[in-house]
Each structure stands twice: as structure tokens, then as C-alpha cells.
């Protein structure tokens, strides 16, 4: 372990950092004014913001926000400020802006109000309090720099960890103050985003066991595999290929294909949605291989929930914490509970041949057999809905979370500036590894040291994981040095690589 110091950009202060091993670094990262540890420095920073040069208010004309009207007001919202007085939230990823039409709107949330926009003209505007990023689109070399001291950053990322491994590293996730991810530890968890409702699970079995047994006698395999995205971090095809040696698997997708789909189902849109003919076709199988493309706590998709909806048994690999969310402790067959693909195949064969044991996995279709209180409470209490018009979607929900948090932070800053002896400064708010952290990809079957050097998976995903760490540290370095040009990212990454090679990192 080593200790070194960095200078806080523009603040003339050195803070200690600790380097942990080859890559890990524990040190200061910008979070907001709330992160300043002493009263004098905090006050000086607030004064500096008042003196700072920002874009003029005409960056967005009054007319652009003047006619914006909200259609909803939270039950605890008594905010009567005009649009000109409200803090602004900027959606940096404009394609995800959850409003139509136009690029700007007033939102009246649970306790306060904000203006939200996708117009980047307001990036440097003093009233722009927070910038929201979509994780899949977040790239260090496109980040809005310099990072302004009066702004927080918010992350929305409900997709696979493979889409941006930068966010799985501590230096990457620490860039953000607020998070909405699939992990339960995030500020605004989206863990059950693929589960519409409890009723979705309780839906009657689509194909009876009697029919499934008849189909088995007619040559239908006990196990279904349907994937067309083959080169993924979880390396699922390698596992399935080995499993196929010990049990019959009908594979209809592009990956390990051994059977053609009926012509009327060959349009890929039928598989991505829940088109009735497609759903009826796959419901004929007793077991569905449900292997996520990335392995990370709480990352669970339709691959898991759809078989449960249909009355099939998912054979699952993905979230290591999947049992925390299952209707009961006898719902899914978890691949990692078996020492080998052969052991799994033997178990599935026994279930296939024993109707009573197989039906135990479908007992959750009886409401009284759903015993997981965590699952029931999460479905009951989440404020956002899936295909539920009575609730906001999670995009609108998260922006309101950020709005209320920012109004509370700004109010605390004003109170502290006016009465420093009576009002405490707002507390730091920064994301941590647990908000998104996902492990280094590993082979779907076997040990990494046994793979040949030219293995396609080996050449892509472990390298992508470690290169994303370099990019995360590079962006953190840009912010620490108050750089304004994202193109300098590669220079910072090179400098860090040189320092690491010399044993100075």
C-alpha cells in the first residue's frame, strides 16, 4: 500500500490518496459543494460560484420555458415559484428525455419543482443544478468538461453491465452523485424492471404438463435455448455447448442453432416482444435456459421472468443473488448450484421423468405459495410502474428523485451560507461500487488459464473490462485537474500507464 497526495482543482488544497494494489485507488473525487469538509472552504467555494462566469440567461430564452406547464403535482409539493426561479435538470442523453413534445418541461414532483430539458445550451447555466446521463451512452471522451462545481451528476442505467464496464469500476461510478440502476443498493433501484406485476407471475400455465409430456414423446427436447446475441461477457454459449453433450436441447436462435424456427416466427420482433404465437411456441418446453449476457448482482431480465409467467422452469445463470427475488425457494434451477454441466443435465433429466417433482417448481402459481416477503414488498411499494398508467415510469420517477434531492441540497446550501453557525452544510452524496459494481467476466465453462490465447471471448471481454478501468481513471484525472477538453483523456490514460509501469501508481 502507498499514500500520495492530489491537489483539489482550483481549491489549493492537498488531500491524501491510498493506492490499493495494482489498479485500485481510494482518494478524493468531486461530488458537490456538500463534499467540502470545513466551513471556511465551503463558504469560499460558494462565493466563488457567485463570482463565476456562466452563460447568460439567454442560453434558454424565457419563452422556451415560459409556456411549459406541468400536468401533475406531487401531494406534498407546495412549490409556487415561477419557471424563472426553478433549478434546471439537463438530460445529457437526449434520446432518453422522457417528455413529448419539445425539449423542455416543468415538473412538479413529490416535494418540489424543477425545469427539465434536453437542450445542451444550458450546460454552463448557473441554474442548471444537475446533469442526467444514460449509462449505455456515457463515454469519458464525450463528458461535459470542465465539471462545474455547482452541478451534480446523475446516472440512469438499467441495461446490461456489458454495455459500459466503466460504471462497474469505483472510479467510474464515483463520478456520479445519484444513481438509478438494476442494483438494489442504488439510490433509485430498478431491480424488478422486467417484472410488470405480481399478476404476471400468477398467470395460469400456458401449456399443461400433460401436453408437454406428449410433446416430449413426439421428439420435442426437454430444454429450450434461444439466443441470437452470441459473443457476450457471460460466455453462455460455452456452457450450453457442454451441457448439450448430456441432455437434448432445442436451440432456435443464431447461437448454437440446431433447429429452425417455424416460418411464421422467424421475424426477430416476435422474440423480443411477447407476441402470442411466439409465447405459445416456447411455452411448450419444460425448461428454458435463461442465461444473462452479463453477470452482476440483481441484473435480471425477461429471460428469467418470462418462463415463470408462462409456467416453464428457468434454468438460470445471471445474478448471483437471484434467489433473493424468487417467489419461493423452489422456483428456478440455478446453474451455479451444480458442480458441472453434466450434474445439471442429470438433475434436469430426473425432473423431466418425475411429474410430481417437476410440478413443485410451478406451485408459486398459487398465490399462497409465494412466500418471498422481499419480492412482495418491492412490488407493492415501488413508486414506478411497468405498463401501468396509474404510476409514473421509472425515467420520470428518477428525474423527480433528482429534482427533490437537488432542491433540498440547494436549500441547505442557502441556509448554510446565510446562517453558518445555525445551519449545517449539506452532507456529501456520492455513488459507490455497490451501486453498479460488476465483476471481471469469466469463462462460461472451465478456467480462464485453460483457454487458448486466440480464444475469441478471451480477446474481447477481459480486455474491455480492464480498458474501461483506464478510461474511468482517465476521466477522474481530467476532472481532478480541471481540464476542459475531453480529447485529453487519452493523454491522461497514457500518463497513468507510464506511471503504473514505473511503479508510481
UniProtKB/TrEMBL annotation:
Belongs to the glycosyltransferase 10 family. Pathway: Protein modification; protein glycosylation. InterPro entries: Alpha-1_3-FUT_met, Glyco_tran_10_C, Glyco_tran_10_N, Glyco_trans_10, GT10-like_C_sf. The lineage of its organism: Eukaryota, Metazoa, Chordata, Craniata, Vertebrata. Residues 86-189 form the Fucosyltransferase N-terminal domain. This is GDP-fucose protein O-fucosyltransferase. It comes from the Eukaryota. It catalyses: L-seryl-[protein] + GDP-beta-L-fucose = 3-O-(alpha-L-fucosyl)-L-seryl-[protein] + GDP + H(+); L-threonyl-[protein] + GDP-beta-L-fucose = 3-O-(alpha-L-fucosyl)-L-threonyl-[protein] + GDP + H(+). It comes from Salarias fasciatus.
